[in-house]
Amino acid sequence: MGRVVMAGLIGIVFGMGIAISGMINPAKVLNFFDIAGNWDPSLAFVMAGALVVTAIGYRFVLARPRPILDTRFHLPTRRTIDVPLIAGSALFGIGWGITGFCPGGAIPALGLGESSAWIFVAAMAVGMALARLARSVLDPRTPKTA
């Protein structure tokens, strides 16, 4: 129960940060990508701030013998750059550039009641389900929870 509550609190803090920074507004994000037009550099400052907080946070957290609410750290072990990584990154970037939404901004934007956020999140859920199905068909050894 403690893990679920903590995950919820962390999600609320993250969502508030995204909302306060204005990153739930797809027009603001799209203006960041419009370097030849109405360029808005504020997203770069949000990303830089997130990197600083993350770098400092990881130093403190990984200095502990284990997480507070788990028995061990669950860190990525793969270090290879492969086709699924490149394809997934490209799809993420294309989707972000077309819509102005990424999952981190779209989920908090649901609270605004904008239909575009709801459509994006629904499409994202369908895409995740299709990707999971494709992985299970292409590689039957893929865990069902991946």
What can you tell me about this protein's structure?
By secondary structure, the protein is mainly alpha-helical. It has one domain (2-138). The protein has six helices and no strands. It has helices spanning 2-21, 26-33, 42-61, 83-99, 103-109, 115-138. Helix 2 (26-33) packs across helix 4 (83-99) and helix 5 crosses helix 6.
* Helical content (DSSP H or I, runs of 4+): 55-70%
Number of helices: 6
Q: How can the largest sheet be summarized?
A: none
Number of strands: 0
Furnish the topology, listing elements before pairings:
Elements: H1 2-21, H2 26-33, H3 42-61, H4 83-99, H5 103-109, H6 115-138
Helix pairs in contact: 1-5, 2-4, 5-6
Q: Key terms for this structure?
A:
6 helices
